[in-house]
Amino acid sequence: MTFNVTEVLEIPLGIGEITVENLLYFVVIFVVGLTVARVVSTNVRRALTERLPKNERELLAKLVYYGIIIWAFVIALPQLNFDLSGLLVAGGIAGLVIGFASQSVVSNLVSGLFLMFEHPIKIGDNINVADVSGSVEDIRVLSTVVKMYDGIYVRIPNEKVFTSNITNYVHNAARRFDYRIGIRYQDDANEAIRITKDVIETHPFALKSPAPSVFVDNFGDNSVNLTVYIWAPARNWWDVRTDLLWKIKQELEANGIEIPFPQRTVWFADGLEVKNRTAEKKGKEE
């Protein structure tokens, strides 16, 4: 008795026209899809280790995993002589209904995926987006959470984040800030510039490269106006800014250079000036 593989594969299973061969093809395709799903989801999880929090990373990996499994299952179904036309029609109608009902959800989801891979912001960055300024607390699949500088948390849909202009204050390692300092006209501007530079050079977080710049910018109504440009580490610039401003003021005053108050010189006509002096003399005599 000879064993015929072809005859064995063509043995019907008693379920419609499904044979052993059909069942084997279905199992092989599904197992391959399952293996691919595991490999891809594992690589996605590893690639996003430093980009996303654990919960969001696991959620995305599961979406990829089950998406590939469903795709493999749909490809394998025809091996069981299953007619997909009715399923496709029903799925198409259901997809239209769900699509109209969840346009914003899908848009936020897709935008969230783009944000994850483009990586314009990350957790801890100080940003301004959609007129919201603060620190990025969380980047989720559908939304981004920003903690404003006054402690208020704002949830921004990812679609709005992705389509808005994003200002990232700490993406560059260094950030520049500036002062406008006014001194009296009788003060020595060169001495004021020297003192200011000396104070900046002694600060540990004021960067030497790019170098700071101090110069006379313009002549105001009440003062000679100096402009000061200083670079500092992006994550420390605010502390450096507030600290240096006070130290510069103290050092200028210690060297006799003062910041002037607004003042006006008033010129009187000769007749008016004489009358005023006469009135002052009478007041003193009385």
From TrEMBL:
It is found in: Cell membrane. Residues 179-259 form the Mechanosensitive ion channel MscS C-terminal domain. Keywords: Cell membrane, Membrane, Transmembrane, Transmembrane helix. Residues 105-170 form the Mechanosensitive ion channel MscS domain. InterPro entries: LSM_dom_sf, MS_channel_1st, MS_channel_C, MscS_archaea/bacteria_type, MscS_beta-dom_sf, MscS_channel_2nd, MscS_channel_C_sf, MscS_channel_CS. It is a multi-pass membrane protein. GO terms for molecular function: mechanosensitive monoatomic ion channel activity. Its main location: membrane. Belongs to the MscS (TC 1.A.23) family. This is MscS Mechanosensitive ion channel. It comes from Methanoculleus marisnigri.
